[in-house]
Amino acid sequence: MKNSGALVLGIETSCDETAVGIVSGRKLLANIISSSVDEHARFGGVVPEIASRAHLEAMQSVISRALAEAKISIKDIDAFAVTAGPGLIGALLVGTSSAAGLALALNKPLYGVNHLSAHIAVDSLNSDHKLDPAIALLVSGGHSSILQVNDLTSDVKTLGSTIDDAAGEAFDKIARILELGFPGGPAIDKDAKSGNPAAIDFPRGLTLARDLIDHKYDFSFSGLKTAVSRYLAKSPDHIRADVSASFQEAVVDVLLTKAIGAAKDSGIETLIIAGGVAANSRLRSLAKERTEKAGINLRIPPMDLCTDNGAMVAAIGSLAVAKGLAPSKVGFEANSSSGITTPIF
Amino acid sequence: MSTSLAIDTSTSRTSIALVKAGKVIFQAHHDGALSHGEALPKLIADALAVQSEIDEVIVGMGPGPFTGLRVGISFAESFAFARGIKCVGICSLDAIATQFSDPDFIVAVDARRKEVFYARYTDGFRIGEPNVCQPSQLNVLQLPIYGEALSQFPDPTEFVAIAKSGRTYTSPIYVRRPDAYPAPEGVKFRAMTQLDLVPAFAIEKAAYGKDGWTMAQLKEEYLGKERMYVAGEFGGELIAYAGVFNLAGVADVLTLTVADGHRRKGIGRELLRRLIDWARTQKCEAIMLEVRVGNGEAIPLYEAFGFIEISQRKDYYGPGKTAIVMRKELK
Ligand SMILES: [Zn+2]
């Protein structure tokens, strides 16, 4: 593992986590996260204004804690990276403004980076393996896509994505219906452990032959919500854990079928699973099983690096530095809906 | 010679200035209500090309539309941190007010949703903390109204003088609570009764140990005149309480305590809001409280409500335990 690379500090504020990570080359030195998730729990979703307030409140202390954990001074940092999109605009701006303040104060380069690319780039940390080409399954509260990663910092193609809800969003919605609380992903994962994943045959969206013509690698999860609601209405004596397990199985099954299909079709032998939903235990175990069978090399970041964090932002910043890419222009624009085709702003 | 960097993003204008030994050596602005994030780094880069050495950052803490406001504060705090210099916050309305000399006038800026943030200035001084209202409510005062509607913006070259006056802030002047903030879920707020004194004492002891009130003190304070106590209950159990005392027109917060395990859920915020509301109904001119130096949970909350440190009391909580006295104007 290259230990002697540039010292890069990454800032992430696209949603409800105020996070700062520090890497040296591909080695992770610090990863500090302050979450306002508890404050949002009672609304069943992230409230932008509350998230933005919390980012500003937490920012300075998160930066200081990350530097303390890495045992370095802010003046030692060689380059800064910050999530510039996609995300909540008011939340993103707290991060980009803070990063701009640090970079201008110290006259160091600043890379505005794509949040989705960062989720995949976190796979580079603490190991020397070759990163690209790879097929990436990116699954989170805001996104569900299958990507062809030819070069992580400059050439990423979208093969397919969700046509309605994101996978993480589906977990949140179903958790709300099942009264399991927010965020839904961990709640359903836990509840499903004692349930039977084959108890109920929930639909797998966009898997019929006629759907595959136009949506080979696309997902659809909104039909699942209807199917679960309908099932609950007509089965008053249902076992909740069975519903959780069967719903989770339907999501995980379709994600993996399509992602592994993309790897096989493209002849690319590596599948990276990234994003918050990659922390789902059933997705992790079934992915291992199925990729082994298919002869595909599987990589999933450790659980704590799957959900939003600063280390992933620092990781892609560090890759950009290592490739000698130009930093972002001073005053680059944060973009709440930026696509993955621009990994570096 | 000391150089200050002044930054304001509380209005649709992003403006900055470099002031060196009382002289403005750089000044620039950019107009656009949605472009603070892009404009500010560019303006700062231009300023640093004129002079890179900076000794302090002074930033407008608002009030103003939140998203733009946070761009300036976030930038200023990080810049100051990276340089190892101090960052001072001031009220942005004060930097509009300095441009006018009427004996009595109002400064108002856009607060969105058909409201304005405003403050009143008499004989050159701001009366109380900034507040929010509908423009028509200001018109009845029949005073001159200055501000963004007349293209009058905070003047960053005035920031140094304002910071010196001591009316400084360490967090954004939000004035309004986030729209979505309801009362903490599952917590019931009601008047405190004598039956609550025993569980209250248990919470008091767990929270403050020897420094807390004794049962007798608690009871005596509770039974006193001109005061209001509120209790927070969760699952039928007392988990928080607070009391306020009206002493000749100035309200004094007697206690505000949230049980361990229930903190950081907005319960303290809700209790404090109720104490302030009561003080207003009593027509108190101000509300005061004491808080221990270094209480990192409580002080930001008080500041968010507009409490300002006015003095310190040594050994207030026992030897070596200093109290900060904070005050919020209610008029
Ligand atoms: Zn994410």
Automatic annotation (TrEMBL), chain A:
UniProt keywords, alphabetically: Acyltransferase, Cytoplasm, Iron, Metal-binding, Transferase, tRNA processing
Domain Gcp-like, first and last residues per copy: 27-314
Q: Where, if anywhere, are coiled coils annotated? A: none
What are this entry's molecular-function GO terms?
metal ion binding; tRNA N(6)-L-threonylcarbamoyladenine synthase activity
* InterPro entries (UniProt xref): ATPase_NBD, Gcp-like_dom, KAE1/TsaD, TsaD
Q: Which reaction does it catalyse?
A: L-threonylcarbamoyladenylate + adenosine(37) in tRNA = N(6)-L-threonylcarbamoyladenosine(37) in tRNA + AMP + H(+)
Note whether Iron occurs among the keywords: yes
The record's listing under Pfam families reads: TsaD (PF00814)
Q: Is Amino-acid biosynthesis included in the keywords of this UniProt record?
A: no
EC top class, in one word? transferase
What GO biological process term is on the record, naming one? Answer: tRNA threonylcarbamoyladenosine modification
EC number, as in UniProt: 2.3.1.234
Cross-referenced HAMAP family: TsaD
* Entry protein name: N(6)-L-threonylcarbamoyladenine synthase
The species this protein belongs to is: freshwater metagenome
Q: What is the lineage of its organism?
A: unclassified sequences, metagenomes, ecological metagenomes
UniProtKB/TrEMBL annotation, chain B:
Tell me the keywords, alphabetical order: Acyltransferase, Cytoplasm, Transferase
The entry's family comment says: Belongs to the acetyltransferase family. RimI subfamily.
Q: Establish whether keyword Repeat is in the entry.
A: no
Instruction: Tell me the InterPro entries matching this sequence.
Output: AcTrfase_RimI/Ard1, Acyl_CoA_acyltransferase, ATPase_NBD, Gcp-like_dom, GNAT_dom, T6A_TsaB, YpeA/RimI_acetyltransf
Q: Which GO terms describe its molecular function?
A: N-acetyltransferase activity
The UniProt entry, under PROSITE patterns, shows:
GNAT
**Where in the sequence is the signal peptide annotated?**
none
| Name of the protein in its database record | Unannotated protein
Keyword 4Fe-4S recorded: no
Q: Where is the N-acetyltransferase domain?
A: 187-331
What species was this sequence derived from? freshwater metagenome
Gene Ontology biological process terms from the UniProt entry: tRNA threonylcarbamoyladenosine modification
